Amino acid sequence: MTNVIAARTHFSLPLPAAENRPAPVTDDTLLPQRPNQDLPLSSNPVLSLGALGGALSWPIPLSADEQRRLRLITLNHAHHLGDQPLVMQTDGGVLEFLRYRQPLPAEAGNDPAKILEALVNSPQGQRMGKVLQQTMQGIDSESSASDYLLAAIVLQMDPKSITTPDRTSVADFDLGSDTHAGLHACTVVAGLAEHLSRTGKTSAALASVGAYLLLAKAAPQFLIKDIPATVKVGSQAWASLTIAAMAIEAQTPGKVPGMTFAQVMSDAQEARRIAPAVTQAVETRALLDWAVASGELTKRPDGDYLPAQLESARAAFNAQLDTRLAASQALDNPLPTRKEIALARLKERFGDLGAFFEEKVFAVDQHYVVIEGGRFSLLDIAMIDWLEYRPFKAHEPSSSLKGKDLQRVLKALNANRHFGVPAEFDRQFSRAIKEKKAAVNTTVRHMISQLPLEDRQRLEFGKISFFQEGSYVMDGHFNNTYGPNKPGLLVKTELQGASHAYVIDFNKGTIERASLYDAKIKEHRNGNRVSTTKAFSPSHKADDLGRERPLSHSPCNSFTSARSEAIGMAFVEHLDLDAPAIKQQARGQTALDTANAQLSEFLLNLIPFRSAIVNFQSGQYGAGAFDLLLDVFGFLTTGAATAGKLLKVGRSALSTGAKALRAAKVVGVAAIEVLNPVGGVGDLPRLLASGALYVLSKGVKAVNKLRGATGSYDVLKSISKQYEAAATGTVKVAGQTVEGAAVLKGGKWYAFDADTMRPYGSPLEEFKASTQAVAGEVDTAHLDQLSELNHEVFGHFKVPESEIAGLTRNSQGVYVATDGHVSHIRHTDSNGETAVYEVRQVTRTEEGGVQARIYHNNRQTELLVQHVQGDEWQRLGAPGGGQVTAEHLRAWEALSPA
Fold this sequence. Notes:
The protein folds into five domains: 1-166, no CATH class; 221-277 and 284-292 and 621-685, no CATH class; 424-577, no CATH class; 686-778, no CATH class; 791-876, no CATH class. Helix content is 35%, strand content 17%. Strands 7, 8, 9, 10, 11, 12 and 13 form a seven-stranded antiparallel sheet that branches. It has a six-stranded antiparallel sheet with strand order 22-21-20-19-23-24. Mean pLDDT is 78; it is low at 1-47, 367-372, 594-627, 639-664, 677-692 and 878-889.
């Protein structure tokens, strides 16, 4: 029975024979026996779980060997009451083990986050976590028990993450499967929960808790609240949301789960700015997922793509982003009107005369021009090409313009009665309609690309038939009055003997499945009103659309395919944006227009303003809310005048401003400018799955925090008084040498989290101290040597002086090329030697200092520098060497005999 259960949980290490198996690790080994009764929840204050990866989300996470040990210890853990099987023998794994005789609080309800917190913070959870921490020889801290327990739960459910980490897979569930493209995030989350229950990794009752924990660690974007229905997995909007979420998560692990869509997108720009290196890495990850989902790249299990393939995907991503942004703006732009053009021309000629432009104070001989009252306004005159040769007269004094001013205007008007408004209106209107047609086509292609794969394949390869729904009214004398067609266009597909129907609903911004009964020619009479469904044959590529094509299972790039383009053009034709009534409405009426055209309300549905397709939601997030609008493309924008409220975030969240792309103010969305994955493209899956993003973000920040803005190392000195020593230095994580901090306790170095100001984890094996404090003292002379950016040592990274010829140093001490893409610094070292280095990731720290990373031959080096003044820069986080200094001797003397 034990072996069966072990196999079902995908145990990664073979268990020893029963007679040789180590005795179960129990709570009693470390803690006194508790009575055999239901255990109440701890009365102590509940600990916030923070990053739900626990020890797997530490700045320096558990190594693969440590993860194997932790999982083995976890599976052999026995309940302290003695009447419960080992964890490996418990159906439902660790989560069910923790729930044994442990009632959940009523306030947790069905909320996975609250249930998880209740289980981990329960006496049984903390007791088990303490056992794991001590057995792993981890340093004790306020959160260590929870950290080890959370990691243990993850590793029990997802053992493959230890040996074969996959950036898109958790617990053998592929989040990046093509079957998930086009689905809402909540559907994928539900699918993961069902998978965990079906495979026995958790129980059905706690499957949603297990899914929440796994996603919080690996893909927190799935746990964002209020993700709009238009944001589908695999889409560009999803890629932008993922980039924003991962950039935030790299700064503050555990923050994203529970944030709203609007909050994440509003925080995105600031998160990108703080950690450019992390942003590049998460952009690469999101780009790969998007490119595979959209058919730009073929999925590779190893995730290893050539740089040229990545660059091609990046170019495609940015091109599509530009196309969608242009369409979004075009849909939002109102149609030009003669009145607006005429007012602009009048202001150019007469200045802004306000209400006078519409006062009817001018007249000619009524024998020649007969209208009601015989009087015109300047606006009436400007809106038409005036053919009457007789001069105008001021018929009566104006209420807002009198005397000489009125005579001045009258004289100027009679000198030139032509304003060129009709011709300008025709030009602008034609251009606007052309832009709206292109935008509608883009929108339809976008909606197709948002569909699940099977629906996209039917539209791409099936035989297509279109149907329009309309109506007419009979008068009994064979004179039928026809009404407008409905805005939606019915589409019938036939592929491999199966038929399906869809309706392109522009008002909702969706393509939804419909009944086959709806997609056929028919009439239905109700009194004298007849509803009709008629076949519609587009004028563009009708023959191609009407033929079934061989089904291909290769990646389907629906947004750019010729078939999607043809369907989009068919829908544009169906809308009939060239209808004379639309232009007549935009022309407006003047005092001379005898036609009294009454336009029907249906015209409002034919003009594709964004206000017709928005999806309304609302949420209160603090005082002083800022209205945000979400369009069909998933762009969150500000300042949209054509639509109502959608989402709200605090004004402070937008204090940094939203970067303008084209003329639209888009929140949280940006083009992908540079791809520079850490460690190369081939290392990306391993790095992204190992927590290295957090390390890259936090390591340098921790060193800077302990160093201080002035380089005094006051924080490091203070920490050293609590331990045997404190130091900044380097350690290897996933094969990468990264910077960090550590404290010395019991003669062993332990990693130190500068954010929580707590040590964590097992003793470090390869920590190399660079700056060390003992009993509140630091060797200043050694610090100066370590901080020196010496050209004799690092001269192989320098570039020719000509690279900055003609450039001026900016306020940050950086020489930026005229194109804005390449930056350099000039540094004079202690020997008086000057050299130029290429830098990237130029950022300003919280303390106001300017830092930059030195690059060479388009590769990142280990050199992080901080601006001192002028052309002087100081090296940060320099690795230690083989030199023995006074500080080492003091540290040695301070060690205990143990």
